Records
---
Amino acid sequence: MITNIVIAGLGGQGVVKASDILADAALAAGFDVKKSELHGMSQRGGSVTSDVRYGHPEHSPVLSPMVPPGEAHVLLVLEPTQVEVARPLLHPDGLLIGPELIEPSALKNKKSFNVAMLGALSTALEIGELYWQQAIQANLAEKLHALNAQAFALGRARGPSRRAVVFDHS
Amino acid sequence: MTEERLLLSGDDAVALAALHAGVRLGTGYPGTPSTEILETFDRLGGHAQWAPNEKVALEVGIGSAFAGARTLVTMKHVGLNVAADALFTATYTDVDGGLVIVSADDPGMASSQNEQDNRHFARAAGAPMLEPVNSQQAYDYTWLALEIGERWKIPVILRLTTRVCHAKTLVQPRAVEQRRSLEDHEALPEHDQTAQRFRRDIPARVMIPAFAKPAHHRLRQKLAEIAAWNEAEGPVQEYGSEASDHVGDHVSDHVSDQLSDQLSDQGGIQATDKIGNRPRVRNNEIKPKLGIIATGVAAMHAREAAPDARQLTFGLSYPLPLERIRAFAAQVERLLVIEEGDPVLVDDLNAAGIKAEGKPMRYRFGELNVERVRRIIAGDDSPEPAPAKGKPPELCQGCSHRAVFEALRDLDCIVSGDIGCYTLGVLPPFSAMDTCVCMGASIGVGLGMRHALPEAEARRVVSVIGDSTFVHSGLTGLAEMVYNPPPTGHLVLILDNGTTAMTGQQEHPGTGRSLDHSPTHQLDFAGIGQAMGVQSVVQIDGSDKSVSLEERIATQLARNETALFILRQPCVLAAPKIRLYEKAASEERARQCAARPEV
């Protein structure tokens, strides 16, 4: 079984950084991982999505790096206007985690909103918290570690706490 | 192979392989999705530099390879059009060092002006072409390109596409003892740099007709030999048969141990519910014995879309291993080619008498994905659901280009545009661009309109070009302007924001900094305009509001002069970094002055 996650937002919000952290966490947890997104023109403030897929390295290695439309198990959206834009990417029974979950004013720095949203996402995935913390540290400058650890913890406390349902591709 | 497993983009994998293989020089011009290759090569310690354009990059690369050095040249697909003049004759020559030309194609045009399929170039220029399916193969085939290139003394194209360049997948690099590193390479007696001499080989490198005629014969002979090698031992993966060879998706025991531990800790993915299978294609449901031929990332989509089908995927897609394909075709009832872009493979197979089925026309447009491949396999040519309309990109808040396009809009200019961030000036609220074709075209196209339009209309034409694009392909346009001036004159605006902004703020010869941001000579755009004989050359600082830009342009358009305005204001995204580079450079200068002994 492959787990498909799509992160959606606008250019400049840290969508790609968030998917880098997710991919590193899944890799550290022992999964085969692929991630994919478009760079360039789409990042001048336009809609951005990034796909992360992971599965058991022997039983279900990831083939295509792109999540087929309508087959995301989890859709994590960082920007209210992008919820409906990205919704067709989500499986009808998939889990939507929208930006309303976290009040930006609850964060010490609004730039860590993407990491706070990953905290919420983490409650829906089978990736241990330690791997997330390692991945956050590996992807951000040291001076930002404490700030983002707090953001992640805040998101984790508000997460849906229900495992994403994973359908079988095989 | 090492135990080391890295999650790398295809671009980074190429850079890592280049480093491991001892590539002595990497050169290219920035272009999505290829840009990160040279940036990473530099970061890893390789010698990387930006060229003014792809043609110069390839020429420098050819020289480096003639001199015996392993060389990497990178560009996006349209960049190879610029470099094509060099490419088509370079394949006639003998290169001593491996010369890898990366063509990063952009099917679906995530950030390009066309979705040309550069597999045609391999065939047209007679250049062997390797097509990786993922980052592991991007790493492996960079090595292979160097090895093929050195064995047959021929430049090799490594064709990537957006989803190979920017997708991150796992890579196991070669173990240190399997690498011929830069140090090893140079430690060999025959590569002692101080003893290295130029190897003269005039008939193999001077392409006058007398030498080029036999050289063309040699090229066809090389390609025949490479095709024979591809048949016998080329990189081919076959799936779904007893002879399956699961190259490309390696599995590490170490990792699966970790996974097992984790699954026991956390309940595990096996325990999760199953919610409805997606419509899938099984070969026995459609037609027995489906055989798929696929290359590049499409091969991964196909394996996922039809896991039970037989599949043949080859890494060296030109010259093709036609007999291996013919043998594969004989074993299946339906032979389907899954390829992104143009019907290149399917046409080649049918021309070789291998009956193969292609895809309906609608799938020629845009990228493929698993869902589209399922539809192709099912023979479904019904209209596809329209993709959701996202928010389009826009010029950044505070971008210096905004004021320019407001002025051009308010003056109702006919704007001949160019390639870069400023192409976004075509979108509302500006809607101030009328043409955009290729790098540097703003000047020539603007001049053509000035020549053809009646005077009142001609006077409204303005060419708008960025600083990096001006260096890339605008210099010759400027020569055209002074050589064949239209009766109404012309106005060229260089929007000089001090960086190659669109591709992620790379340096270029107009910034005065090298790829690694260290100081180097800086081109003087105003001096160039004056030396060429442009009648009015004006430098305008973006922060200078003493005369409005609108007024300056209006005044100039009323005159029958050739004019070059250089509008200087740093890109808002690059400005903080530029300040840091300048600070570092001035500190370095002070350090050097202090270290100089007094006389």
---
Amino acid sequence: MFDPYTRLEARVGELGNHHRKYLKNISAHKDTLIDRLEACGKIDQVHFRLTAPDLASEMDTVMAVGRNVEEKLTFLGCYYALQFLNMNISAIDVLALNLATSDDRYTVYKGFMRQIGNEFRALTACHMDKLLNLFLDKNGTPEYVICGVGTRADQDDIDVGIIDDGSRKRKDLNLAVGRLQHSMLKQSVPLHLYLSEHVGTQSYSASIAEYNDLLKKEIQDFVIITEMLGAAPITGSNHLFRKFRREVTQRYYYQRQGDNRFHEGYLRGLLGEVRSLLIRRMKTNSINPKDDGLRMLKGLLFAGKSIFNIRKVNAWDILKQLGERDPDHTEIFQTLDRSLTFLEMFRFLYQLFVVQEDEIYVGGEDTISNLQSVAKAMGYQDVGVIKAWDHLLIHYYEHIDGIKDPIEILLKDVIRHLERISVFSVMLSTRQLETQYEGNLVIDFLKASRFFRGTKFWDDVLGALETGDGQLLERFVTDFNSLDTERRIKWIAQYADWSNYAFMVLMRLLVILYQNRKKVASEKLFNELNEASLEALSQSHDVIHRITRIFNHYPKLVNNYLLALSEEDQLRFKKLLEGNVWEEEVAQLRDHLVNLCQLHCCSNRYFKRFFQRIINAYPEYIQYLDNTDRLKELAKGLFGKIDNLKTFREKKDQLGHYHDIEFFRVGLETLAGAPIEQTNAEFTEFSDNYLQTLFDICKQEVEQEREGKLKTEDLLAVFAAGGHAREQAFDDDYDIIVLLNSSDEALRKKCTTIISKMNTELVKRGTLPHFRFAERYGHYVTLFSELEELFESNKEDSFIDKSQILGARMVVGSRRFGKAFEQLIIQPHIYNKKDTYIQQMAQEIFARHVNENGVKEDGFNIKENSGGLRDIEMVMLMYKAALHIQTPVSMKLFDELSDKIPDKGSELKRLSGIFSFLKRLRDIYRLTVAAEDTIYLQNLDRVSPIMNFKDSSTQSASQQLMMAYRENMKQGWSLVSEFISDIGHHPAREIRDTAIQENTP
Amino acid sequence: MSFRTEIRLSGEGGQGLVLAGKVLAEAAAIYDDKNATQSQSYGPEARGGASRSEVIISDDEIDYPKAVNLDLLLALTQESCSRYWKDLKDDGILLVDSDSVKDIPEGSFKVFKVPIIAIAEQEVGKALVANIVALGIITGLAKVVSEEAVEAAILARVPKGTEELNVKAFKAGLQAAKDLS
């Protein structure tokens, strides 16, 4: 005969391993139970293979055949196990059938979840009832009620709260609950008594008075409150439950007239969590339906429940009622309903089929195989190479993503409600502050906030301090300043104490104080409060977690906070992040934050300006501080999207972001020690890209404004001059030459409009454009005829202008233009008059050093001093003129020259090495110290590690770098002198003497 | 004479301490026929980074479900060690992950320093099973639940396909406990 137990065992094998304990129980006791029922003639009154129509009666029957308490318990446990397994197997069979016959998957899911929740509740309630009947002394029982406070369908444990009447009989109840707890752990689903653990005093249950006492102190525990608001009686006194609702939970609902502090505190707790979860980044190696979606969704539903006084406890019922009360948001509630259904269903089935854990690690063959079972049960099928679990996960991510917008909309409504009912509303309203409020804001706020201690949502208060005309913030600072020293210290310590439970709030307050320090004279307060906060943080637990959590959710805030800190405090803050962390996600966040601190500590304001703009626009990019490849991809993406944007404004802004990210990226690479050749090439690439695209956008804009095409291609060109022409990174100005090969004034005017628009954008990037020749002629655009006139005048200093032209590199313009430029300007005015040009340049080099009194001990100019960058660049220009070379002054030019004058190859190689060293030093100095050319020994401690200098026993790394720097300059000057003699065909000494003679007063 | 053993497993979220607590409680109650309760950090506490799971095992009835006088404290992080060591009995056991907990509090309790996470990573091949390695060590040190019961409870709790890995982790923990004695 086919054994039904074998069939059951086979079916249970489809489910998770945690079902083994039920099989163990059945296997051990079913035969005895059946024998006993048969012996008593009651076998037909009990269902073993099907779910029972009358659980209570069948449980009574099963217990009745036990000869003693132990047997009764054993038989009841065995029967429960059979019913529990039958219930689950039958439910998934019905689910499969319904999914096969229905077009609406979500209706089936919701029906399933409600059905299984009700059946499970009925089964466990009945089981608990029978157990308690067995354990309780009928005469010694107090009035009590056991409430379910969690999700009805959850089978990993049953969250319960036990309320008693506080009488002496509690002891018996407590003993019975202890036995109940043990029996359920062993035979069914364990109880989770979180409420009692927190409220009770050495017992499983607590009285209404004890709940009241605790809740006066523990307002921040919104989880307890949510459980209480969601409580539904499982077994016991309905009268006591109603009393509990009246005397304990009623206070958390909004009351039109009356004290809403409890309601406000609950909302502050809930909103803090919802907002944090909303901006939480999903983990990459795991998913968690609770943390990813359900918690924020349910948090918001319970906020609505408490605002609208909804007494329903089931999430779908609450959603329905919210929809009825707020018909404007019907669509939102429908979206949330579907996602709630999907997520609950997925979580339930994962726990049924795989393991009773919330964290689901995605990856690995076992996980995939387990997810496949869940997907199949949810009605997904393999389609071609796409597996059912792929579909499931895609839908999962869609739901998680899809609920964020609706939740944000509802969140705003809840915040508006909070602002209306808050006890702080008088203090926060500027109008009421003037007329109705006479206290000290510092003291009164903190006193009032004590009631809400530990809650994390203070956006309304901080927002009021941050916005408006600053009146509230000014009052806050003034009230602080009115305190005598002793009281000031006391209140600062009390505010700093927030770092122990809501550091984010304190951090935001500190940032507000710092950012408004000039407006409301808050610098002193900022310094004192910050000092106290850092001190308090260093003494507290879980600092890495708490800080990384804030960083994860509010990277911009943390960045602004770091910006407010002195370098010393930045290092103190960084030190707080030291220590082992287990969670990969936390460790990763910590690393990103340490990188950010490092960047703040080692970069100067010039670099921070770009960095700041990026963080403000894209705070999420902070995570890529150590991943410049990713930053490059993001920049490329932004650049690629420019064409899709509609307005010119949007295009220009997007292009600006592209520029800033690329600037930032190349800066990071430089700081990480990338070779100068690489950083210069990458800088030039994005910088040219930026200028070319900006030109195009501005040209299109002018064409649209003037309703006609502008034919500028062969006539107009934009040249980079100076450092940009030399393909040199990190110049803080942008030398530009705009040339027009036409005398058409109307065309010049149109071109000027384009360049004027470009100028506006360049200024916004913080790189100051200098339009060469513009001051001389009063136009951004210089005509060929004007240049010809200038060079024909043969002025003494025309070699300076010629150098600009000779060193310029065309960024925008056609090849035809380039050819015309060479033929009409370069050839006749520079190449054909090269001897004069070279002589003037050589003399200029010496003349510039006539009054240079040697090298200063602690600081000298990397660009202008003897052997510096300017000298080398001028020598290179002289060679360009002498040998008619068009290549810009860059490393490529050194190579080209070596080919043309091989007997100077070794000297050129040495000079190129010196040029490279000096440029790298200058770049790093500009990013880490200051965008200036005078290098000071005392500032080199930030530069030397990046340039791989290390402390030795006799000299610091900075001293060694300074020595290397001086040696390079010295050798550079020696080589420059040698090259001058070579190009000028005169001994350098002769040229120098002439220069000295002509430049000595 | 009856006994009541209170064990607290503490560390960070993601270390599987709640699951370890459930396994230990079920091992005692289902497979060793003892009395047991299990509770875990919950609410705002659990939504931070910390994680805590408590198991009380007794051969008598358990009238109070909260662990207040610990016989054994497992601390996988410095934070959890610093926070909970004061709840240890004078003759209790403090078991720490030696790579994560450097600052060991002074007291009359016994201290066992074991590289639990490193064992999971290096000997078993997955840091994720550090909780099960810890269970092995606790089983060996506390001797309140049998090895067979804990192994059976592990198999009845872990996801399908990971049974072998978890048993390997448990045995590595048992061996580590033996090496301590």
---
Amino acid sequence: MSAPPGWLRGESPGLTLARRTLALVAICAVLLPLADLRIVAADPWTELGRMALGLVWPAWHALESPFSAIALTISVALWGTFLGAVLGFPLALIFHRSRLVRGFCAFVRAIHELFWALLFLQVFGLSAVTALAALATPYAGIFAKVYAEILELTPRAPRDALPEGTGRVSRFLYAELPLVWGRLASYTRYRFECGLRASVLLGFVGLPTLGFYLESAFREGRFGEAGALLWLFYGLIATLHWWGHRRLLPLLMVGALFWLGPWPEVDGALLWRFVSQDLWPAPLLAGDITGMGTWLASIPDLAPAIVNTLLLALMGTVGSLVFALLLWPLASRHFAGAGVGGRLQRGVGRLALVMLRSTPELMLAFVFLLLLGPSLLPAWLALSLHNGALIAFLVARHADGLNLGMPGLPASGRYAYELLPRLYPNLLALICYRAEVILRETALLGMLGIATLGFYIDSSFEYLMFDQALFLLLITAGLNMLVDAISRRFRPRDVPLDEPCA
Amino acid sequence: MPLLSFEDLDLGHGAQIVLPKLSLSFEAGEHVALLGQSGAGKSTLLTEIRRRLASRAAWCPQGHGLVPLLSVYHNVYMGRLERHSALANLLNLLRPNRQAWPVVESLCDELGLEGLIRRPVAELSGGQRQRVAVARALYQARDVFLGDEPFASVDPHQARRLLAQIKRRHETAIVALHQHRLALQAFDRVIGLRDGGIILDAPTRELDIAHLDALYPDAAESNTRPETASDARIAAS
């Protein structure tokens, strides 16, 4: 007879992951007092009521040119993603062989689309080039990394079966690419959905996508119009598999070309001045070392911003994990009852997840900010809900592909014994991938006035201090690369990755 | 002059030696069956033979090694991938090569794959895939055929037909398999592997089924026929 093991004792992979997760949650709980989580709102309820009313009774008639906004949103997402894939694919082929390429990719994807947009905006103005470059640049880095990981998982058997002396290109075309084509294509589709969200966000810096109208409607309190625009966007995401069908894509691509615009006239001299002078500190260009000291001293104290950024990223990651664990059964077939009621329940669950994951995190944060006042709390909630819902959706899809070994278990048994043990490694891997994205988003929330690094980046751009903006962007990118390295060590190994929208 | 010979050779993967101190030789024109339990070292031996013969041998790997997304034609065409330029291979993916198509088609017809040449391999049954894998090896058109369980997922009747095709097109064949009856009836020589060594190497006319059963200790004890044991193994894998 042996004594049963104590709490969380044992060597099974599930327990290992559970211990790791609890350690993460514990670290977050210990650090939580450092975060400013005050609720400082005076009377948010009237404003919030009007917002809810706007969502319930959208003012469809108030929309001026919804079609062109939608068309531009889709066009930017489509071509931005496509260009990102075209640039990222060759990089993926040499990704594991070149440290330089890995570093470059980590750098370009460490900066959020919106900050790229702010940078390109200075040179290309409010144009299609700014929009496409803002999407394609970070996406090239993301595609390079994910494609390289997918290619690494190519089964070896067909390659080993090839006759002696087969060339590298032929081997790739016949015995490698076709084996991973499906995974590459499905990841690209997911990235396109992310591209749609990013395309909406570009409206926040002034490009006339859906986000532009959404932001101005929100800012000016025209909540009926904002509601209508949000519903349009939810509809767009929910019907993606119809209008974004594989066969329709070439047609969409060609059509999108007509909607992209305006095309800027690039002033070469201006571009050169921006790249060679505006982006760099003047003392550095003049070779004045003491002047550099003064320049550095002029930068605001970044320590609290860095602490806030990292803390918010950790809290957001843990929050997403908790929400993902709670929310995924909402959209899974294993937890819907039989008949019409079950279908309805699942439909509502799915709709809720679509709404949570398609609402731009900036918008969610804005609403919570209004409700709770300016602290880290609204940002935390927004990040956790948005990313948690996104991961919940992916996990539910994964779960729907599994068959239960023992039918007739109660819901808790299905959750804890049948499904979660099989889903959890993947879920945790997704969260680890997502940690990097969450960090990028914390910077973004700075644009709303939350005291993260993004706040200072945004104000540097606002005051046309491009040298300072670049310096802060480099710090942000450095932080991102650091967190990426940590999360890579933390995430469970040998997990077949189920298309993360990372 | 033998086709190939080993003298006191240690074979294995990296530092792990599967077949120590192996001495063996093969003559041109022989049809050799390699028998033994899974893990006895058949694949290790075949891999070494393949390495030595290089482009003189056609190769049919265990588990087919096919590309599911590509059509039967393209999978068979892969047997001669090294004889065309990368550009020609790329174009062939977009539009089948005029010269290669009829050759591949008649080969497929002979192997009982009539009308399937355009079909993606993913849509084929296990037995059909097996035949595509054999077709790809035949398409290589070499002197020696090396097969690692090329009949694992076809019935005995089919296996006999495939083997006839293989023998017709190759001077020499060295094949790992589990079908003892087939080994006795259609091969010249049987090599039996067990516990990291050769425990049987004789012309088939000197052998009977009992000799071969000794290669499978479990099967002999539990009195199951080896065919059944190998079928069970395939079903489990």
